[in-house]
Amino acid sequence: MATTADFRNGLCIQHNGEPWKIESFQHVKPGKGPAFVRTKIRNLNSGRLLENTFTSGVKIDIIRVENRKYQFLYAENNDFHLMNTDDYEQITLQKDFIENSHFLKEGETVEVLFHADQGMPLSASLPAHIILEIQHTEPGVKGNTATNTFKPATTETGAPIQVPLFINEGDKIKIDTSKGSYIERIK
User: Fold this and answer.
1) Percent of the chain, pLDDT > 70?
2) Higher pLDDT, 113 or 141
3) pLDDT tens figures, 131-180
4) How much is the pTM?
5) Annotated domain spans of the chain
6) Torsion of CA 24, 29, 30, 35, to 10 degrees
7) CATH topology for 129-186?
8) Integer Cα distance of 4 and 102 in angstroms
9) What is the DSSP string of 27-78?
């Protein structure tokens, strides 16, 4: 058993019978009354984000988790087929299980978080940045590099994204997968 003093970002805990991951926390010691910990926790089953307050010193159950690297093989209907890069074991995850899955292309590495005791996947995340090729956008105009204006484009995976005016079809761009936004053009 652990206490709220053991909280850290990314810690997985058992709360109300479900697995939760601590996104952020803050210890608060008010001038009057007992100390408490204000947290933002994400449900690993549903993905729901919840703000919760724990009394300081309360006992919590920590879940043992493992991160395993998987390579994305292919998509079939609403399922993604992944292969463990260490032992070549294959698993199938639902499309909704992976956040921003529309940026995922074949051969890309995905990090899957597993419950160490039960061996079941809890969540999956893409790398922080992915490089994709632009398949369709309006042609760029010479001299449109000074303004901060964006236009719609479609990547090789079919994902829509906003890009600067100077980006053309066939250009490779780096994308921030957590925000789904353009970072830079790759030459």
Assistant:
1) 96
2) 113
3) 999 999 988 666 666 667 888 999 998 899 999 888 888 999 999 988 88
4) 0.73
5) 2-62, 65-125, 129-186
6) 90
7) OB fold (Dihydrolipoamide Acetyltransferase, E2P) (2.40.50)
8) 37
9) EE--SSS--EEEEEEEETTT--EEEEEEETT-EEEEPPEEEEEEEEEEEETT
Q: Are 34 and 56 in contact, with CB atoms under 8 Å apart?
A: yes
**Phi and psi at residue 142, to the nearest 5°:** -60, 135
Strand 109-115 versus strand 12-15 pairing type: unpaired
CB within 8 Å of 187: residues ≥ 6 apart: none
Side-chain half-sphere exposure of 137, counting CA atoms within 13 A:
28
- Asked if 5 and 57 count as a contact pair (C-beta separation under 8 A), the reply is yes
